[in-house]
Amino acid sequence: MNVPFLDLKAQYKTLKQEIDNKILEVVESQKFILGSEVTELEKKIASYTETKYAIGVSSGSDALIVSLMALGIGKDDAIVTTPFTFFATVGAIIRVGARVVFCDIDKKTYNMNPDSLEDVIKVEIKKQSSSRVRAIIPVHLYGQCADMAPILASAEKYNLSVIEDAAQAIGAGYPSPSGVKNACGMGDLGILSFFPSKNLGAFGDGGMILTDNEKLAEKVRILRVHGAQNKYFHDIIGGNFRLDSIQAAVLLVKLKYLDHWSQKRQHNALLYDRLFDETGLTAKGILQVPDAVYKPIGIPRYHIYNQYVIRAKKRDELQKYLTSKRIATAIYYPLALHLQKCFAYLGYKEGDFPETEKATTEVLALPIFPELDNDQQEYIVASIKEFYEIGY
Ligand SMILES: *Cc1c(COP(=O)(O)O)cnc(C)c1O
C-alpha cells in the first residue's frame, strides 16, 4: 500500500467543476487584483472566525510582517515567540528590524508555555536592553490553540500586543473562561495562511489578517497597497501584499467544505488514537499520541489537526522504516529556531529550551488528510507496531 502525506489531487477531483468554473469567471472578468472575490472571501472569513475585519494578503508570512508593521514594530522593539514553529514566525520579526526573544513550549501541546513566557518577559524587563518587549506571537501549532488565557493575562499585565499565528489553525477553538473563542479572535491581530498544505489551501500563496480593531484594520489595508490610502499618495511605507482574485475564488469554493474536512481530520485522529491504544505502545511509553487538551469533537472545533503528530522512540529509524513501507511522514520541525545558523548572532545555545529541543528529536507527523481511509490508517499503525516488534 502507498500512503501519501497529503492528497490534494483527490480533493481537487471532487470539486473540479465548481473550482474551474469559479476560476473561469475571474479570467473572463480580467479583474485579477483585489477583485470582488477577495472582498467576498474577506467577509466570509471574518464571519467564520467571528472577527470584525479581515484583510486578504499575499501569504501567511506577509500577514505576519504586515501585522507587525501595523503595530509600528521596528528596531527598538523585541517580540516574544517560541523556537518551535515554522521559520516565518521569526523571519517576520527580523524582517521588520525587531529582536526576537524565545520562550519554551509546553511539552503536551507544543505551544507556548505561559510560565516560560512570563519568565522571559521578567528577565527582559530586568535587563533594560535598548529594545523593549512590545508584543507576543503565540503560534497555534498543528491546529490546536495555545493556552491563550494566561498569555493574554501576561500581555495585559505588561501592556503588550498579541498577534496569533493561526497559519495552521483556521477554525480551531479555545475554551476560554468566558466561552469558546476562535483562533484569530483573541489577540489584537490574527493571521492565516492559505498555503496549499494548510487546512484551507489555495492554488498558490495567500494569507489573511483578522482583527476587531478598526484602526489596525485600516492600517493593514493601506500597508497592503504600498501605504497609499489614495492611489499615488503615500503617508506611510507599505508594500505589495495583495491577495489575487483567482486565489480568493478557489478559497471561496473550498471554504464551504472546510468544516466537513476538519471533522474528517478529527475523525481520523480519533481512529489513530484508538488503533495506537490497541497496540499497547502508548501504555509502554514507546510512543505518545497527540494530546488534544481540549477534547470535544465536532463543532466547536477545538483541534483541527492540520497535523497529527506523535512522539516516538527511535524517531529517525521509524521514519526510515515507514518510508520503506511507502508511508510518507514529515518532521515539523527537525531543528529548533534558536539553534539555526542564521540566528547564531542572537547568542542562544543548546540546552536553553529543553522541551523544544526534546520535541525536535521525537516528533513525527503522520498522514491525517481528510481523504485518508481506514485501511490506510490501519496499515500505518500496523507498520509502526511491526517496527517496534522487529526490535529496534
Ligand atoms: C505556514 C506557516 C506560516 C507561513 O505561511 P505562508 O503562507 O507559507 O507564508 C507561518 N507560520 C506558521 C506557523 C505556518 O505553519
CATH architecture identity of the largest domain: 3-Layer(aba) Sandwich
Kindly estimate the percentage of residues that lie in beta strands according to DSSP: 5-15%
CATH class of the largest domain: Alpha Beta
Q: Regarding quaternary structure, how should these chains be classified?
A: single chain
Helical residue percent? Answer: 40-55%
Total domains: 2
Strand order of the largest sheet: 1-9-8-5-4-2-3
- Structure classification: alpha/beta
Are any ligands bound, and if so which? pyridoxal-5'-phosphate
Q: What gyration radius follows from the Cα positions, in whole Å?
A: 21 Å
Structural commentary:
It is globular, with a radius of gyration of 21 Å. It is α/β, with parallel strands linked by helices and 392 residues long. It folds into 2 domains: 8-255, Type I PLP-dependent aspartate aminotransferase-like (Major domain) (Aspartate Aminotransferase, domain 2), CATH 3.40.640.10; 258-389, Aspartate Aminotransferase, domain 1 (Alpha-Beta Complex). Strand 4, helix 6 (148-158) and strand 5 form a beta-alpha-beta unit. The model has no long low-confidence stretch (mean pLDDT 95). The longest helix is centred in the N-terminal third of the chain and has 22 residues, at 8-29. The protein has helices spanning 8-29, 36-48, 60-70, 87-95, 114-127, 148-158, 214-224, 245-255, 258-279, 315-324, 354-362, 374-390; strands spanning 53-57, 77-81, 99-102, 132-136, 161-165, 173-176, 179-182, 189-193, 207-211, 228-230, 233-234, 287-288, 308-312, 363-366. A 7-stranded mixed β-sheet has the order 1-9-8-5-4-2-3, with helices on both faces. The structure holds pyridoxal-5'-phosphate. Pyridoxal-5'-phosphate binds next to helix 3 and helix 4. The site of pyridoxal-5'-phosphate (PLP) has 15 residues, from helix 3 and helix 4.
